[in-house]
Q: What sequence folds into this?
């Protein structure tokens, strides 16, 4: 089973991807996490992606598509994946369909997590993420039990460099211009599940699981 998570930055894709991957026993493949790992390890890929990420722009398709398709070709993904942050435009969606079709596979569902713009800005403003397991927290809405420490794995929490006001604005602009057209495209393909993304992570997850059934 291959499920795509669609939604603006801050919609809760990362949180839901982790929860769904656990429940459905699928691997979570998050393009942003792959880029951040490459950046932290200062690989060639990380160096190429850095400038785009800092500006809140999309990393060029040829770099992104190759990175994600390589990840999807690894043996742990053979039963499917929860895709978080990819595809982010029509070209990426086409490349993904083509690569899956070559293996007799397809995207089963696209889950669109819908959140108002005001809520997105609020969430991204107070977001902290575990350096180790990527679990997200919010300093007001869902703080960790111990300050600066992940509840799940004890890892150190950090704030993403691109969660500052200017870059968030750009990321939202890019989302509305390039990524949101995918919503219609998956709707036309009969694959879209639209989920109300406000409320607790557990509530949103309950809605997603019910819709997938
Ligand atoms: P995310 O963690 O999904 O918010 O991604 C963080 C940043 O990584 C984005 O702002 C982009 O610069 C880059 N990125 C992640 N996924 C993609 C993608 N599918 N296409 C292009 N750039 C991406």
A:
């Amino acid at each position: 089973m291959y499920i795509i998570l669609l939604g603006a930055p801050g919609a809760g894709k990362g949180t839901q991807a982790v929860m769904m991957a656990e429940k459905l026993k699928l691997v979570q493949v998050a393009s942003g996490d792959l880029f951040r790992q490459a950046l932290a390890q200062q690989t060639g890929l990380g160096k190429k992606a850095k400038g785009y990420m800092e500006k809140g722009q999309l990393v060029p398709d040829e770099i992104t598509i190759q990175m994600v398709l390589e990840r999807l070709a690894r043996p742990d993904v053979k039963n499917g994946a929860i895709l978080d942050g990819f595809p982010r435009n029509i070209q990426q969606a086409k490349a993904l369909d083509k690569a899956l079709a070559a293996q007799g596979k397809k995207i089963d569902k696209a889950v669109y997590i819908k959140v108002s713009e005001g809520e997105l800005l609020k969430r991204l403003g107070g977001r902290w993420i575990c350096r180790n397991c990527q679990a997200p927290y919010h300093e007001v809405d869902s703080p960790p039990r111990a300050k600066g420490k992940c509840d799940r794995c004890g890892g150190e929490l950090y704030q993403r460099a691109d969660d500052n006001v200017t870059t968030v604005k750009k990321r939202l602009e890019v989302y509305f211009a390039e990524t949101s057209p995918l919503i219609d495209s998956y709707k036309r393909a009969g694959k879209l599940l639209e989920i109300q993304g406000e409320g607790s992570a557990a509530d949103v997850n309950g809605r997603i699981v019910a819709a997938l059934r």
